[in-house]
Amino acid sequence: MKAGTFVVVLLCVLGRTEVHSGEDDNSARHSWTSPRSVRVGILGAGGVTIHGADFSSLPELPTCCPRFRDGSGLTTLGMLWGEYPVWKSLVLGLRMGVAQFAGILRTLERKPVLVDDTPTEAVIQHSIDAQFRSIRWESYLGVRASPLIDLSIGAGTDLIQQATATTKEELVQPNTGTFENGRRVRNERTSGLESSTRSMVSLLASVRFSIPLGRTQQWWFVPELSFRYALDPLMRQQMWYVYSVLVGAGIAYAPVTLQSFPEPEPEPVRTEPALPALAASIVAYGVGSTQEPLPLRIEEHLRHRVFPLLPVLYMNGVELPERYVLPESSDDTSWYRLVSSPLGAYYALVPIVATRLRERGDTLKLVGIDAQSATVARRRAEYIARYLQAIWKIPARQLRVQGRIDERDTTARVVLEGNEQLFAPVEYTDTARTITPPILRMRPATNGAELLRQWMVRVVQDSHEIARYAGNGGLPLRLDLDLSSSLERLLTDAPLRIELDVESVGGSRANAAELVPLTLNRRELTSREVMAERELYYFPTHLPHRDSITMLIERYRKRLRDYAIIAYGNSLETEEALSNLQRYVSDGGLPNPRIERRDALYRAFTPERVWYAQLVAVTLRYALDDSSGQR
Length: 631
Hints:
This protein has 631 residues and is of the alpha+beta class. The protein has helices at 2-21, 25-32, 342-347, 349-360, 374-392, 546-556, 572-587, 607-613, and strands spanning 36-55, 68-87, 90-115, 118-144, 149-173, 185-192, 199-209, 211-212, 219-230, 239-258, 280-287, 293-294, 296-307, 312-314, 364-370, 399-405, 413-418, 426-436, 439-446, 452-461, 464-472, 479-482, 496-504, 509-516, 518-521, 529-538, 560-568, 594-598, 616-625. The longest helix has 20 residues, at 2-21. It folds into 4 domains: 2-108 and 139-161 and 194-258; 280-300 and 433-521, Immunoglobulin-like (Sandwich); 309-424, CATH 3.30.1330.60; 529-625, CATH 3.30.1330.60. 25% of the residues are buried. The strands form 5 sheets. It has an 8-stranded antiparallel beta barrel. Strands 13, 18, 25, 26, 27, 28 and 29 form a 7-stranded mixed beta sheet that branches. Strands 12-11-19-22 form a 4-stranded antiparallel beta sheet, with no helix packed on it. It is built from 8 helices and 29 strands.
């Protein structure tokens, strides 16, 4: 009866909690009258079985003297079930399946015995190990205590299909000695329990969680905690009752949803003014250095880039790694596209040098270097020489091969030596873009009608997404997008579309959009001046001399519009090179250049990247006089 009282109290408490947990009476009524579904499912469970008894022996397995009082065991079951909604949040359910439960009952008997002719009190443990299998039927009445929790009470019966038990007597004390059979265990017998009841009725109570799997709420994950209280004994002539606590989980399917009739709404006492609908807006514009709004404008101009060549090939074995470009034919010009970046030009070092050897007829010395073997070092150099002869038809008289050991620098490599013109910097010409101003500022806002759950801002151009921002809660006051990082993806004949999408905590949505024009300022070749740019890259340890920088400045002095010195990386060599270049241009009679410090150009995980990560660049933006054709 205590278990039944507990279930009733739990039902009342959860029911009252649900009624008063909403914001008002209408929301509480909605939770109790929400649609219920016809559901079917499967359930697997397991748990603990508690046995309460008061007998001394079983007809099939007679024992003497002590009485068995209590015991415990394990239960497993599998069931099919179905339920049907009958009224508001109440459902009727039926379950059937197969259950297996067991229990071990023990009792102690104390009696004096003689051990070596000495009276000693002995403790003998009598035990019954029983196993039962049954077909289980259950019917229950369930109530929806909360949106996720169901409570149910009902009754069920176990139709016993098989019952067996094993009895034995075990000598517990003293630690020495045996029974008359020479063992510490006697009277060990197993038998079927024909006297077991054929139907055992129980009361049941359960707490079940219904977790929907998906928005359609047709499939549910259903964990469950249940308690069974036996009304009938296990044996017809003995007091032997079984109580169970089970934990299980299953899957339910709701093929049909039945809409319950809502309770009539009370007449409103007063009419509240309607709140305005959620609305959104966004403003976007370009921002200059003085923070004033400016139109976005793209400029295109010629760009001449000059990349240094490192005359060293790094080889792990005897052959060149795949990162180096080795055309299979001298007519293959696909490697030209690699010279658009400093490291790309370096990886095309072999075809660049081969082309210059054929044009100039100079002599190239290939020096293989190894930490231990001059023979292995020479084989590396010979590999490059054979390639130049076979593919580029370079005569053997233009090639010199040598191998040597370098114990200080153990990096395996081939050093190229020869006329400086063979390793002169590579020049590359293309069309570059700049955008003015580079910052697009966006100011999203709503009318404040509802609190926001989430928001998203997208920058789109001609169905191509340029950037996306998203977050939870309130909107930021502003968002700044650096368009210079997306310059190559921008189209010059379509505006930017700024889209704002917001969702409130109540589920309302609103959106807004803004168009920002984007114009192209391309100067025609017939104009007097066309803007151009020149970028010269140097290794920090291989800077040009002062005269070269002075000649460069004199060449562009009258047409110079802007110039800067850029240092990639932060090594001591880079800082020293930056200082020297700044002094060179100042001695040339120009104002101090604009100085920029940037991160390393490449991640240095190979030897050549160590060199190319730390570079110094001189950039000059100038007016190209088309009449003279000077660059």
